[in-house]
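The following block was generated as part of the benchmark described in Methods. Ligand: zinc ion.
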Amino acid sequence: MVEYNKPLPQITPENKPFWDACKQHELSLQRCQDCGHLRLPSPICQKCLSMNSEWVEVSGRGKVYTWVVIHQRYHPGFVEELPYNVTLVELEEGPRLITNIVGCNNEDLHVGMDVEVVFEDVTEEITLPKFKPVSQ
Ligand code: ZN
């Protein structure tokens, strides 16, 4: 595996199930066991403040909510990829996550674009969820 020189997420006991699922190429969200609200890793439910939760696999489908195209080098690890997009994807199940759209020219990105998750194994420990356009 080529040395990965970009920032990596920090694994904590709270978010480990999310990253473990990514490693298995599955997208998981935390579901509140009291009200059913789905969320990205967080110790507490934003809807009802319950701390009871379980992890559930979700569809991996969503839509582009918004994005930016980065032209400036803010981190040396990204220099080869300029210009690249940073995109907020709204999952079918509701939560929005920050990611990149791959397999698509930045010029073709649009709000509401149907996308699905793909997984990039970047290190032994970390697999990143990214998204690609759904082929129609
Ligand atoms: Zn709740």
